[in-house]
Design brief:
The chain is an alpha+beta fold. The protein is built from six helices and 14 strands. The chain folds into two domains: 77 residues, Phosphorylase Kinase, domain 1; 138 residues, ATP-grasp fold, B domain (D-amino Acid Aminotransferase, Chain A, domain 1), CATH 3.30.470.20. The strands form three sheets. Strands 8, 9, 10, 11, 12, 13 and 14 form a seven-stranded antiparallel β-sheet that branches. It has a five-stranded antiparallel β-sheet with strand order 1-2-3-7-6. The chain binds thymidine-5'-diphosphate (TYD).
Length: 236
Amino acid sequence: MEKTELLYEGKAKKIWKTSDTNLLISEFKDDLTAFNGGLKSSEEGKGALNNKISTELFKLLNEKGVQTHFVEMLDDNHMLHKACEVILIEVIVRNIATGSLSKNLGIEHGTVLPFTLVEFDYKNDALGDPKLNDQHCLILNLVKNEDELYEIRRMARKINDILKPYFFEKGLKLVDFKLEFGRDKNGAIILIDEISPDNCRFWDIESGESLDKDRFRQGKGGLKVAYENVLNRILG
Ligand code: TYD
């Protein structure tokens, strides 16, 4: 399958049309951004690592009965996936408090949460991705009804129930992550976008070291080595 026309360019990916209207190609870029585009950089090979990591995790989730947009990895930087209607909600799943949760609510960094927290942010850069509650989602028509909200939460928790023990076995704590969902041509809610160290936090169980984009956010360096480490644990 070949890419034809550029449909959309985001911060970390370009999305291309194909000759099949039901299929799109994501091109994973090496660009890095944080703080809503306030911090920018690039790391050669980062896009390929995220494509490979996402491919493995989408395959795992598909095997466990989670519907995703994934079709196949085409080459180092390209993934073929289903075209769907994007739901403009960033679904944040948290097991351990850090980042904006610690900052906004004063929950000490590193606190294990009593249960998995699922939050919604409005995927809207111009508004700075504000927090949403269920009523906001309905008023903004981001979802069609409460059943869709229920399904998104159910899927987010199921994905966490699969990935948290999977990474724990590989010596990593899955601290938190961001998911995106869409509707396929039958209207079913499916997982889209990517699952990679760009949108997950992984802490090494032994050392506590971050193996994710926090290295970039905090100016620590060693980002590529950290992402390679995550991929090797997944493959190993
Ligand atoms: P969060 O603590 O809300 O934000 P910040 O990165 O500003 O501290 O992030 C929770 C998790 O969700 C973290 O793994 C990063 C991921 N995330 C994204 O990938 N994109 C986003 O736009 C946001 C807000 C979070």
